[in-house]
Design goal:
This protein has about 300 residues and is α+β, with helices and mostly antiparallel strands. The protein contains 6 helices and 6 strands. A hairpin with a 5-residue loop joins strand 4 (about 35-45) and strand 5 (about 55-65).
C-alpha cells in the first residue's frame, strides 16, 4: 500500500495496489505491507483460575485490511514508517496479552478439554482490539498446552482411567443389553413359533370343518342323485309294465274281436248251408234239422 504525502496532499493519498505520480523533493511516498502475517503467540507459565501454571502456544494469521478505508487510514496512522517486523511485533504483543488474560480466567480442564472454545474467545477479544489498529485477525488456533508440574499428565491419566472405567462399564452394559436383547429375541421367536403353530392348527381345523361340510354336501347330493336315479328307474320300469299291459289288453281285445268275427262268419256259413238245404228237402225234414242244429249250437 502506498501513502503519498507532500504539497497539495492533506490528508495523505492512500493507494492500495496501484500507481501514482510523485513530484521529487516536493512529495514523499511511504509503503505499508498488506501481506498476511503468521504469528507464533506464546504465553509461558501463566497461572490459571485455580493457580496452576501452564504454557500455551497459539498460531494467528493477521493482516492490514486494505479494502476497508477506515481501517486502512487507522493502520497508516499507527504503522506509517514502521517495518513489517515492527507491525508483526505489535500485533503479537497484543495477541499474547489477550491470550494471557483469557488463560487466567479459565481452568486447565476448560482449556485442555475445549480448545475450540478457548480459540474462539482469543479470536473474538483480539479481533475487537486489533481492528482499531486497522489489523484484522484472519484466524487463531491453539497449538499446544503443557506444564512443568505434570498436571496435564495426571489429568490425562485420570481421564484415561475414567475412559477405561467407562469402557469397562460400557462393555458390561453392552453385554448385559446383548443378553437381554437375545433373551427378548428368543422369547419373541418362541412366541412367534407358538403363534404360528396355533394359526396352523386353526387353519387345519377350519380346513377339516370345511372339508367335512363339503363332504356332507357332496354325499347328500350324491345320495339325492342316486335316489333320483333309482326313482327314475322305477318309474321307467312301471311305465314299461303299464305299456306291456296295454299291449296285452290290445292283443286280447284283438283276439276277442277275431273270435267274434270267426263266430259270426261261421254262423253266416251255417245259415247259408241251412238255406241251401231247405230248398232241396221237405219242410219237416228241414225243420227237424234246423232244430237239431240249433240244439247242437246251443250245447
Amino acid at each position: 500500500m502506498l501513502s503519498l504525502l507532500g504539497c497539495g496532499r492533506s490528508p495523505p493519498l492512500l493507494i492500495a495496489g496501484g500507481r501514482v505520480f510523485v513530484f521529487p523533493c516536493i512529495q514523499q511516498i511511504q509503503r505499508i505491507s498488506l501481506s498476511t502475517l503468521t504469528l507464533n503467540v506464546k504465553s509461558d507459565k501463566v497461572y490459571t483460575r485455580h493457580g496452576v501454571p501452564i504454557s500455551v502456544t497459539g498460531i494467528a494469521q493477521v493482516k492490514i485490511q486494505g479494502q476497508n478505508k477506515e481501517m486502512l487510514a487507522a493502520a497508516c496512522q499507527m504503522f506509517m514508517g514502521k517495518s513489517e517486523g515492527e507491525i508483526a511485533q505489535i500485533a503479537l504483543e497484543t495477541l499474547e496479552g489477550h491470550q494471557r488474560a483469557i488463560i487466567a480466567h479459565l481452568t486447565v480442564e476448560e482449556i485442555y478439554q475445549d480448545r475450540k472454545k478457548f480459540s474462539e474467545q482469543v479470536f473474538k477479544v483480539a479481533s475487537s482490539d486489533l481492528v482499531n489498529m486497522g489489523i484484522g485477525v484472519v484466524s487463531y488456533t491453539l497449538k499446544d498446552v503443557h506444564d512443568d508440574q505434570n498436571y496435564l499428565s495426571s489429568l490425562g491419566k485420570a481421564r484415561t482411567a475414567q475412559v477405561q472405567r467407562d469402557a469397562r462399564i460400557g462393555e458390561a452394559q453392552f453385554k448385559r443389553d446383548a443378553v437381554i436383547k437375545e433373551a427378548h429375541a428368543m422369547q419373541e421367536k418362541i412366541s412367534a413359533q407358538y403363534k404360528n403353530e396355533i394359526e396352523m392348527a386353526k387353519a387345519q381345523r377350519d380346513f377339516e370343518l370345511k372339508k367335512a361340510a363339503y363332504d356332507v354336501e357332496v354325499n347328500t347330493k350324491k345320495a339325492e342323485s342316486e335316489m333320483a336315479y333309482q326313482l327314475q328307474v322305477a318309474k321307467t320300469k312301471q311305465r314299461i309294465e303299464e305299456e306291456k299291459m296295454q299291449v296285452q289288453v290290445v292283443e286280447r281285445t284283438q283276439q276277442i274281436t277275431l273270435q267274434e268275427q270267426e263266430i259270426t262268419r261261421r254262423e253266416k256259413e251255417l245259415e247259408q248251408k241251412l238255406l241251401r238245404s231247405t230248398k232241396r228237402e221237405p219242410w219237416w225234414t228241414c225243420c227237424w234239422r234246423n232244430s237239431h242244429w240249433l240244439v247242437h249250437l246251443n250245447f
